[in-house]
Amino acid sequence: MIRHRIFRFANPSIRWRILLPVVNESSRLSAQDWARAALKAIADGGLAAVAVEPLARTLGVTKGSFYAHYRNRDELITAALTEWARSHGAEGLTEFAAIADPARRLRELLTTVVQAVQPLAPSVHLSLLGDRNDPRVRDAVHQVNQARLELLARTYRELGLPPDRATSRARVAYAAILGLLHLAQTDPDAPHSAVLADEATAIFLPS
Q1: Buried b / exposed e along 67-98 (16+ C-beta atoms within 10 A)
Q2: Which residues mediate DNA binding here (predicted)?
């Protein structure tokens, strides 16, 4: 749209001066940069908080940078949810899944996740629950939940629990983590995350 108006200028030097900032912005910000900025907006206010102009101001660019990567807001939301499912689902768990010792794997997983819970910090996961009727949101949340539950269940099986109990234990452990995340949204006086991580390990790591 902007380019069409630009090409009406007859003077090549004018055309160059106008095009140059757009080219610079497009090369400076990637599609992933926009997706991550959208995720921050989602954490703060759900899908409704994703709007091109405010994001452009936050990123310090014009809307031309956005349209170099996405056709519309819906494409950006889809890309943001895909990025979140990738980074917080199976791919984001690769390092933990590669730990051979299941006890160490569970200890490091619980410690990392619980210590990441910060009082009053925005959460993409919790914000998305308010938009759970959107099929894209349901799919992304399902992917993340399943990846985490599968890794926890596999870990408990390797620790000696029968398959059914391993699955149940995984759900209870994951529910506790999500509960801490939810509580942290309104509890500025929560115990230090390291203390909570120690408690989670003591409760959910079989002796």
Answers
A1: bbbbeeeeebbebbbebbbeebbbeebeebee
A2: 51-70
pLDDT digits (tens, 9 = 90+) for 37-59: 999 999 999 999 999 999 999 99
Half-sphere exposure of 99 (CA within 13 A, CB side): 17
This prediction has a pTM of 0.82
pLDDT digits (tens, 9 = 90+) for 131-175: 999 999 999 999 999 999 999 999 999 999 999 999 999 999 999
Cα atoms found within 13 Å of the Cα of residue 171, Cβ hemisphere only:
5
Q: What is the end-to-end Cα distance of the chain in Å, rounded? A: 64
Q: How far is CA 44 from CA 60, 66, 122, 185, in A?
A: 19, 20, 6, 11
Mean pLDDT, the chain, rounded, equals 86
What is the mean predicted confidence (pLDDT) over 81-89? Answer: 96
Which of helix, strand or coil describes residue 67? helix
Kindly write down the DSSP assignment for every residue of 110-167, as one continuous string: HHHHHHT--TT---HHHHHHTTTTSHHHHHHHHHHHHHHHHHHHHHHHHTT--HHHHH
φ, ψ of residue 70 in degrees (nearest 5)? -130, 150
Main-chain dihedrals φ then ψ at residue 71, nearest 5 degrees:
-80, -30
> How far is the CA of 26 from the CAs of 35, 36, 137, 197, in angstroms?
14, 16, 28, 42
